[in-house]
Amino acid sequence: MMIPNLHYKELETSYLFTRIAEKTAAYLAAHPGQRLLHLGIGDVSLPLCGAVIRALHEAVDDQGNKDRFQGYQPECGAPFLREAIAAHYRDRGIVLSPEEVFVSSGASDELGDLLDLFDRSNTALVLEPAYPAYVDANVMSGRTLRRLSAGRESGFLPMPDKGVCADLIYLCSPNNPTGAVFDRPGLQRWVDFANENGSILLFDAAYEAFVQAPGIPRSIFELEGARTCAIEICSLSKTAGFTGTRLGYTVIPGELNRCGMNLREMWVRNRTTKTNGVSYILQRGAAAVFTPEGQEQIQESLSVYRKNARVLMGALDSLGIWYCGGRNAPYLWLACPDGMDSWTFFDRLLTEIQVVGTPGVGFGAEGEGYFRLSSFGDPADTEEAARRLVTLFTGRSAT
Known about the structure:
Blueprint: H1 16-30, E1 37-38, H2 50-63, H3 79-91, E2 101-104, H4 107-113, E3 124-128, H5 132-140, E4 145-149, E5 168-172, H6 184-197, E6 200-204, E7 230-235, H7 237-240, E8 248-251, E9 257-258, E10 261-262, H8 263-274, H9 280-289, H10 292-319, E11 323-325, E12 331-335, H11 342-353, E13 355-356, E14 358-359, E15 370-374, H12 379-393
Helix pairs in contact: 2-9, 3-9, 10-12
């Protein structure tokens, strides 16, 4: 008899963002014509930059020309894009070979697929609150999952705990959902811990472009010893507006070995078996991001999102509401006012001021009592949402 993957029974009954969509749809059905201000799911609101659009159009034209037509692309990524990404790292003082860069259809896909490299007997550690995909991907594969509490007392940036060792360790900085960012000494402690214990760090760098402060690492490979313990997963979704275009990349250094096996070589085998590569058109668009023109243009969009974060920070500051994030990160993580739980606060913002955010409990039990706001919304909507938030809670007690 065929037996399905029974680990799916262990998943939460409703994925966080599915539940948010259901609640907002029900509200709109009951209030036709009402307009919502979305500060929840981290989708971007600004279009692709001109350099990318031009490159995409040129690549489409290539596909209509017999002499320039491109068929299957190399499974690990086109050389022109792998070289451009390696050069981008080199400009930041990080030496990578193009062969250590793997092009993907997005960071979310890669975070799940990378688990193919590791035996199911390996344990995985998440710092909770955690992005739900880290948890669910491991539950689906039947892997033992451990949690390390990341609470307010540590600024949601816990340090390694020898009592909570694991084979795979998920780190995200700038963090989703909390917006907290590891400084260099803090991140170095995790690298040292991983090397001492033979662990692998799965470093989610999807929001690295938001780091501006000196001394804050944008890549795990800025840290001494990271090449023997870390894999970095990156995305152009938030960096360059590729949420609907879908392209990311993963860095696996050549020195990363376990049990006599080389993980970079293993990943080459995996990709050449399980994928046919990312489309030529999308890779040409992505390569434009790493040109001087592309880098200048994406900063214009990033500056808008940074301004949105400042607007939201100003509103929370005026209300005396505790939060972290917003600086060097696109998310703000706030303590729900008046002792409300996360979903109660969600419902109140939705029904009273038509603002949609993300309940913290959706990122794990440690997120209860907190709430995530995103700075990726339309600037006018963000300003209006901030105004409504201040009006709603003016004169109320704050946490």
